[in-house]
Amino acid sequence: MSNSAITGENFSNGKFVASATGVIRILVIVLLLSSAIIFLSNDTCPGTPTWYDWLFPVVSTIIACIVTMKYAAFVCGIAKGKPERYIKIDSVFSILESIVVIVVSVLTMSSCKSLSSVQKVPGPLGLAAGFLLAISTAALWVSWRRKQELLEEMTKIREKSALGPRTSIVV
How much is the pLDDT for 169? Predict the structure, then answer.
């Protein structure tokens, strides 16, 4: 059994859903979509710049869709064949998405000076989603690296045992 096959076992059908990364990704998707819905269902915050009306809902919805597609790739087992490539691609995109969501959420929170508490909800939800996305990326990367290191150790042990028993010279 090859290293990529063993590592890919974690990304076979159904296993990713129950993993910590999978659960956190679902939470990120729910937070992003709910923050966009809350933002769009309320009146525009008075005295905000022109970009305020569209930036947050567009960014949070697009990133929620991208996270959903990457999640589906892991859940459907597409990443099982070459997990290293998918994990690296996912990690790069997830970190970029996390940074974008955090920046847009901070801009949204700092631009709205309204006293209405409902208009202040989407920003913190987006901020939480951005941080959770970064945490899930770290969890995915650490679990994959731990599995890789374990496989490397097992390979070294097999190679040593393949050499045969050591003989010692007693003087």
Answer: 64
